[in-house]
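[SOLVED] Predicted holo structure with fe (ii) ion

Edit: marking solved, answer below. Original request kept for reference. I posted the sequence and ligand SMILES and asked for the 3D complex as structure tokens.
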Amino acid sequence: VPEPGPSHGSVLVVDGDERIRRTLERAVAEAGFDCRTAGTGAQARGLVEAARPDLVVVDVHLPDEPGLGLVRHLVAGPDGPAVVMISAQDDPEVAAIALQSGAYGYLTKPFKPGELAIALHDGLRRHRRERESRETRVRLEDRVVERGAAAQEALARLRQAHEETVLRLSRAIEYRDPESGPHIDRMSRYCALLAARFDVDPDEVRVAARLHDIGKIAVPDAILSKPGPLTAEERAVMEGHADTGYRLLRGSGIELLDVAATIAWTHHERYDGSGYPRGLASDQIPLVGRLAAVADVFDALITNRSYRPARSVDEALATVSAERGRHLDPAAVDAFLDQLDAVEAIVARFEEPAARATPDAPAESPAVVTLQEAAAAVGVSASTLRRWADEGRIEAVRTPGGHRRFPLDAVRRLSAEHGRRTAVRPVDPPAEPLAGLARVLGADGGDLAATAAGALYRGGQPGWFAAAESAPAVAEWLAELAHGVGGGRYEEALEATATVMRRASLQGAPLLERHRFLERFGEVAVRALSQAGASQAEVAGTRRLFAALAQAQLDGRS
Ligand SMILES: [Fe+2]
Ligand SMILES: [Fe+2]
């Protein structure tokens, strides 16, 4: 007597023999299951597809295909039914193959109804358990992936926060010592160049090195800005900045600040042991301290000081070479001299403010380009061009800071001789305020950014600049950019752009994407300006601005 109550599940019986099919159908129904039947493999496949039974009972011999073939088909997918095989003969080999193929049971006809019921219940139970554990595994895996991504993002944010904090902190010393701003920009970037050669994280060192002189905030103005040489007493106070910096930065447990503390403490140690504050020698000095010393010595030489004018890059390099193995670690010096092109690119990018506007410079200086730009235009390496300049093959001028610049005319002439199309443009960003651009950015900046991102990602996967999460950072950039260009302060525009691009980079936008975004944004801004009836000068200035900002992104690689 069938037990009343809800069905235990749905079963499909597949057997070529109609009499047996009927018998089985009855037995299955009596065991408390909903039952359907099929006479062939083809029919069974159709019914499984349409009715999705929980379990399929398959005879070994079907009229149109081997029963094992049907079994393999049924268990192939992740959502397939449970399968029990039945056979007229007790054949252990077939039974073994059936079970291997994914069947949960194997019954030999004739069997008692009780045996069938047990096989059905057993098959379904195992099938459910397996499905549940598979689902659990998938859920767990999903969660692991989600957590991994969240952790990555949290880490990136944390890094960003640390970096931002350090940037702000490093401005503290610039307030005390305004000359130190460009020095910090350059020195920290040479440190990154060197770090990469020594398998140290360049980004971390670049940020940490910004704080190397943070201890100077405790040095009185009378000493810090004294025009002449210091007395022995004053010198001791000044030299205290290494210890002060260390005490200020140590013990946070934050890796970035620990590195910064080490650099602050050891950047005035000398390789031969004659430095301060502790007189460490050779590899007693932490590696980052030895790297920072090279970067700091070189850059201090090319920086205007209250007590002496800046030296030229070549003179500074000569001094650095001469100190190899004395003041400076030989390996660090070699790594530095090995990357002169990158060093000069940094020097050119972060010029001394004094070098920009010297009183005796002509009001309208001719268009000049950096060594790198000139070399790229002529199609030779920077070192070749430097040699040619020494040999007088191309006219070069020196900035008051001693940096080489090449008049655009001379570069065009040389590149024509050299058979290259001149693709050079003046790199100098606009110095005049771009009031129209500031207005357009203020009113429609968000729309312009969205248009630029749309053009950037057209036909592809939308990236960072189109993401909703990046909108606040982009909005902040637009506001700062508008402020900077409105006042004719290119550095401010550059700094704001560097900040948003750093964020984009941390959150996965590669260099090319960032560069292209700036180019697109420039095009969109120019179009908007033209529509607003801006002057030609304003449009040209805007073009130059975005060319320079995009260029700076590429320079930032090193
Ligand atoms: Fe220092
Ligand atoms: Fe320094």
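OP edit: Residues 212-213, 241, 267-268 surround fe (ii) ion (ligand 1) (CB under 6 Å). Thanks to everyone who chimed in.
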